[in-house]
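Run log, item B.
One chain of 261 residues. Sequence copied directly from the ordering sheet:
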Amino acid sequence: MAGSPDSVPWHDAWHAALYGSQGFYRRPEGPAGHFTTSAVGIPHATPILAQALINLADRHHLSTIVDFAAGGGALIAAIAAHDSSKHCVAVDITERPTSLPANIGWWRADGGAMLPSEWEGLHDCLVVAHEWLDVVPCPVAQRDQDGSWRLVLVNSAGAESLGGLVTGANLDWLTEWVSSAVERAEVGSARDQAWDGLCAGISNGLAVSIDYGHEYAERPVGGTLIGFHCGRAVTPARWQHRHHRACGCRLPRCGRSIAAT
């Protein structure tokens, strides 16, 4: 299945859709304008999660809490409100929200697996990555007619094609973590590397990831790549700057996000 001249690996299209100059996570309304999580948008959930993280930090005698991929900062603001003794820092791709309390630090990263320049030698620190790994773009692979793994490409019209063979660390990851029954999968080695990079910046402390996933035997045979448009699950589409849309959405007040578990 030959691709068109403008076909690119899903990893690249995914990254542009989320973190490009017009990407979903750079939009002014932020992710909270489109969906809810246990960190924001679900009634009474944010203070419960905030208190649980404070308790965890206290058990490990950690004085700093960092919310990595903090969005609008609702979770870290709740933590700071519950416990003023904690040094609180948020990390995200956007400029600091004007509503964020002045006692909370704000570090900028460039999205995906990228870390802020301050990410080195963190100590006495609890790092919370809440629904971060599922929006770290990764290669999408599919078996060809011979059963070999190939990269999935996507063109500007949203049509997919199969590219070159998957090799190296990506093939090793598929061999270890994906059963023979699965025909298509998102290759998680990029997220393993992202997590390793995040943890490497912590000299003394604890890192916690709160996210979605699948056990080996329950991995969907067709993969998990999905788009979200105004709170609804949709087929993911490639971001197109000329149409002023984020990941395929032309509606001025709605964006699309791409994620995979």
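Observations after the first pass:
- Helices lie at 10-19, 45-59, 74-82, 168-177, 189-200.
- The first helix runs from residue 10 to 19.
Flagged for discussion on Thursday.
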